[in-house]
Amino acid sequence: RVDTTASCGPRGRHPRREFDVIFDFSASPVGGGLKRLLAYVDFFAPRRGRVLFLVHPHTEEHVAGKTAQYEVVRRNPLARLWFDPRFVSRYGGRTRWFFSYGIPIYGKVGDHNWLHVSNSLPFGLLGLTLDIRAFAGNFLLRERFVRYADNCSVVSGESEFTLDIYRKTTGWRRRFVVLRNGMEAFASGSGKARLPEAITVGTSRYKRLDRTCAVFERMQATRRLEKLLIVGNLESIPFWVRRKPYVECLGILPREQVLQHMRQAQVFISTSEIENSSNAVLEALVLGGTVVLSDIPSHRELIGSVAGQALDVDGLRCLELDASVSALDLSQYSWDKTIFQMLSTMASLSRFTRGTNGVETRDWSAMDNERRSSPRYQVKVDVGMQTESNFYTGLTQDLSGGGIFVATNQIRQVGERIKVLLTLPGQAEAFEILTEVRWVRDASLGRSVDDVGMGLRFLQMSPGAKKAVTEFLSQRESLFFDED
């Protein structure tokens, strides 16, 4: 643990770039925020980079035994709305990147500022079932997200749905990145006898426990279910729900106990009105059994190609599916992959060393050494005067730091090396050029098909290829993309 407050003087007198990254998880003591915090700590701590974690008092016990630098931030929940400007000023000018988990970025804290939208509630309030306190708090939070959106260099979320409603609410349209939750390995419940129970996780009003009970009662006869287990804050469960003879309220449980109940239950139910990307739903899909989900965009995005049967209960449209690990693409739910994507994005937007211990990103994780050392994928590109594919350059208008935009639906991961076989008008043979994926434009956020593709930065090209590209650029204007 480090106490950075002791060395803080007036704003502007801190040593420049004392840290490469400051991660602010100080408002996230449980749930998805805690999981992401621990994943990031486990990744960065053994590499001893210049990284500082700001943590909630309740999470100190989880990070204290690790080698990560951290500071405990003690403030009441209202500080998230009213006093964070004063709080974050203590870190102004001390870091290259400031990563805020779920808290508006009230000023230019780092050279670059990254907002991770951890909750979709502030941006989808209309039509939701919320008590007046929750509505007011999220309304005020939304106003601050909108007001301070221009302080962000990057905005990420755990689903395309969350990023889409953030964009529509704030009007911010710069760099969006989906940073999905990771899934650590754990034993599934497939192949084992299950108890005649259903389970649901979460007790906030927008989780709609009344609808959960209606789904349970519909399935009770056909499945011979005896019990509905409810995991979450007991005070948030309506009295009339607790009085139902089949309901058993378990309260807030350690995660391993929750997973054990989910392995044993026949059915998992989520009738939530809105979600960012539910960890509990993802875990239920991995653990097998029957899963019943409200038909909302984030649930649709999460299950992907998994087939579901429509189920209508009291006007609520749900999807009932028999989950199977084989039907899910679990490769996208890796913490290592998520962290690597984050670092690659940081590298593409700044003169960041692409690793917070002064080494390149590929040295952060052994999993990427082989993948990044040589290209496994190649693409043939024809560039002409009217093609969607075109070269791009930065402010200097030359090829140093430039590359080629390839119009394609076959998007590769940022950081991957690709061999390009480039054909230009009047050239009999294709030029072979080594490139690296630096930025992507996917089909999300309302982009047209013509805008979809990826920017490949030139790494190695022959003098002949460089001359031919330079001559071509004298005839066709390049795209502009400033990586710095």
The biggest beta sheet is recorded as: 7 strands, parallel
Radius of gyration: 25 Å
Task: Record the strand order, biggest sheet.
Answer: 3-2-1-4-5-6-7
Quote the beta fraction: 15-25%
Strand segment count: 21
Distance between the termini: 33 Å
Number of helices: 14
Backbone structural class: alpha/beta
Overall helicity: 25-40%
Q: Which segments are poorly predicted (pLDDT under 50) over 5 or more consecutive residues?
A: 1-16, 352-374, 394-398
Q: Kindly state the mean pLDDT as a whole number?
A: 77
Structural shape: globular
How would you characterize this protein structure?
- It contains 14 helices and 21 strands.
- Helix 7 (209-223) links the parallel strand 8 (195-201) and strand 9.
- The strands form 3 sheets. A 7-stranded parallel sheet has the order 3-2-1-4-5-6-7, with helices on both faces.
- The longest helix has 16 residues, at 132-147.
- The chain has helices at 31-44, 60-63, 79-82, 84-88, 132-147, 160-170, 209-223, 239-242, 255-264, 279-287, 297-303, 335-349, 369-373, 463-473; strands spanning 19-25, 51-55, 69-72, 95-101, 112-117, 154-157, 176-178, 195-201, 227-231, 247-251, 265-270, 290-294, 309-313, 316-322, 377-382, 390-393, 403-407, 417-423, 431-441, 453-460, 479-480.
- It is an alpha/beta fold and 484 residues long.
